[in-house]
Design brief:
With 203 residues, the chain is of the alpha+beta class. It folds into 2 domains: 77 residues, Beta Barrel (Elongation Factor Tu (Ef-tu), domain 3); 100 residues, Beta Barrel (Elongation Factor Tu (Ef-tu), domain 3). The protein has 4 helices and 12 strands.
Length: 203
């Protein structure tokens, strides 16, 4: 479990294809603190550390993860937002993030707004997805590339987020342009509510 408060950025230094899987090697400041089997969120995707080597570590993504996220389009040198799993003895500064990315979204616009930035993203929509909780609500939470954010001006298939200068500089939001593909995770609380309503309707 994660909070959506990005700790650092990790740089992709190598990748290896093995059948449908991809092994990613990342370089990161806290790599020497990691342990094999530890969970780390990469652009919001929870992956398990399988190998360590100094300032680098290796994680593996399977086909299902690659299909639902932007990890499969990463290139050597790209930076991803990283967060280690949440410690349960502190404050929850973001919101409850599972690290299970639901889908990707495409950036439609980036507008500078008095030193901050307003991003608009578009995601796939269907009534079935909405019934399962794959939607956003005004002032609700959404995770974009692993960053816990507050939703503004949602429609059926778009939403906006406002990015302050600190977040812009210290996450990979500064690299997100129009047509960039990002990972999104919808709020788990909304998914539970939708599931409960579905079960109640069946009774």
């Amino acid at each position: 479990m994660f909070s959506g408060i990005v700790e650092n950025m990790a740089r992709l230094v190598a990748l290896e294809h093995e059948q449908d899987n991809i092994h990613f090697t990342f370089e990161c400041d806290f790599a020497h603190e990691l342990k094999v089997d530890q969970s780390v969120a990469h652009n919001g995707v929870c992956l398990t550390v399988v190998r360590l080597d100094g300032d680098t570590y290796v994680v593996t993504a399977m086909n299902e993860t690659l299909r639902r996220s932007n990890l499969g389009i990463l290139n050597i040198g790209d930076e991803v937002n990283v967060e280690r799993s949440m410690m349960m003895n502190g404050r929850l500064d973001g919101h409850i993030v599972q690290g299970h990315v639901d889908s990707t979204a495409v950036c439609e616009s980036v507008v500078e707004d008095g030193g901050s930035y307003i991003y608009t993203f578009r995601h796939d929509y269907s009534p079935e997805m909405a019934r399962r909780g794959y939607f956003t609500v005004d002032k609700g939470s959404v995770t974009v590339n692993g960053v816990s954010l507050t939703v503004c001006n949602p429609t059926r298939d778009t939403f906006q987020v406002c990015i302050i200068p600190y977040t812009y500089e210290y996450t990979n939001f500064h690299a997100i342009k129009v047509d960039s593909v990002v990972n999104i995770e919808f709020d788990i609380l909304g998914k539970y509510i939708c599931r409960m309503q579905e079960l109640n309707a069946e009774e």
